[in-house]
Amino acid sequence: MSQPRILYRHGQPVSAEVLSLTGTRTASGGGACTVWAGSGATRLVPTAPAAVHVLSSSADDQAAVTAVPETATLTLAGTPAGGDTASVSDGTHTYTATYSTGTLADLAALLATQIDGEDGYTASAVDVVVTVSGPSGYTFTDASTGGVTTTPALVTPGVVAVSAGTGARTVALTYLDPDGRTQQETVSLAGTTPVTTTATNIAYVLNVRVTDAGAGLANAGTVSVQDTGDDFVYEVVAAGANKSASVATEIPANRTGLIDRLTLSPGNSTLGRVRVVATALPGDAASMGLAYVIADQYVAQVTTLDFHEAPLGPFPSGTQISVTVEGDGAVVSCDLTVHLEG
């Protein structure tokens, strides 16, 4: 029977949460490339806490959407009579009904019919529901003209029903807030249409994983997390992977990090150079923007650097740890084990 792995520091066993970061990268251009599933050389970090967009490259990554009709509530003033008018607006155009006989419900139906099928409110989308209220018990008659004064009520746009896709439907986005605390938000995907997170305080994206999928059992396309301007990508889930694969993290608030082990595997014959880098350390190092290279290794064969009896660190909260690969065309797989104390 195998024994559980015990991490030691100063000769004493360490009780900590184990974080295993695994990924594969093909180096390009000769420069350092972050080990992650994204196409860019560097896995970016938000420049300031903000909301993010989550989207897929495939329309099959889609959560089910329940139809919600356009709605409008119109209150009539005074006692209306035949020939009186009432109106509602979609914000651009105003729809007016002149009625001679009937009830409030009849007037509502007439207005709804006018709007449905006009200005984007199509029958194939969702119906319009108009509610009309006024003096109790009245009906329109042919008795006279004039008398109703109204301010057009605005139509509230509805939501079109969408069937769930065969790919990913929801993902869990785990991130750090500005205080370094770990937070998570579940995002319902809308295919290739960006979905804006409810959270507006995302300072560092830790990981993304699929939490619900259709018949395909995985995300059909590449799921990306990017800024709301859609210029910068912070994390990706490769098609079919169901979770992100970045060998990069930030130590959360009130935790310290210890590097236990680094396993490297070459994917081809091109020699690759792997570096483990720690940045944003407190004090002078952070103010000077220094990066500390804490491991530097050429990968010609499967190599394991084992530090469990003398782990690297401790790295304080706020330290960003990442693994990069150099060597144009080199393919390297990495498995970095970080223990989080506290």
Descriptive keywords:
single chain, 342 residues, mainly beta, Jelly Rolls, 3 domains, five-stranded antiparallel β-sheet, 2 helices, 5% helix
How does this model look, in words?
The protein is 5% helix and 42% strand. The protein has 342 residues and is mainly β. The protein has three domains: 140 residues, Jelly Rolls (Sandwich); 100 residues, no CATH class; 85 residues, no CATH class. The strands form seven sheets. Strands 3, 18, 21, 22 and 24 form a five-stranded antiparallel beta sheet that branches. Strands 4, 17, 19, 20 and 23 form a five-stranded antiparallel beta sheet that branches. Strands 13-5-15-16 form a four-stranded antiparallel beta sheet, with no helix packed on it. The two termini are 30 Å apart.
Shape, per Cα inertia axes: elongated
Average pLDDT metric? 83
Total tally of structural domains: 3
Number of strands: 24
Helical content class? under 10%
Radius of gyration: 29 Å
The major β-sheet equals: 5 strands, antiparallel
Helix and strand composition category = mainly beta
Count of alpha and pi helical runs: 2
The CATH topology assignment of the largest domain is: Jelly Rolls
Helix/strand order, N-terminal first: EEEEEEEEHEEEEEEEEEEEHEEEEE
**Name given to the CATH architecture of the largest domain:** Sandwich
Summarize the structure.
The chain is mainly β and 342 residues long.
SSE diagram, text form:
Elements (H helix, E strand, L loop, with lengths): L6 E3 L2 E3 L2 E10 L6 E2 L17 E5 L13 E6 L9 E5 L4 E5 L5 H12 L12 E6 L19 E2 L13 E9 L5 E7 L6 E2 L7 E10 L9 E5 L5 E5 L10 E3 L5 E11 L5 E8 L4 H4 L3 E9 L3 E4 L5 E4 L4 E7 L4 E11 L1
Parallel strand pairs: 6-9, 7-10
Antiparallel strand pairs: 1-2, 3-24, 4-23, 5-13, 5-15, 7-8, 11-12, 11-14, 15-16, 17-23, 18-21, 18-22, 18-24, 19-20, 19-23
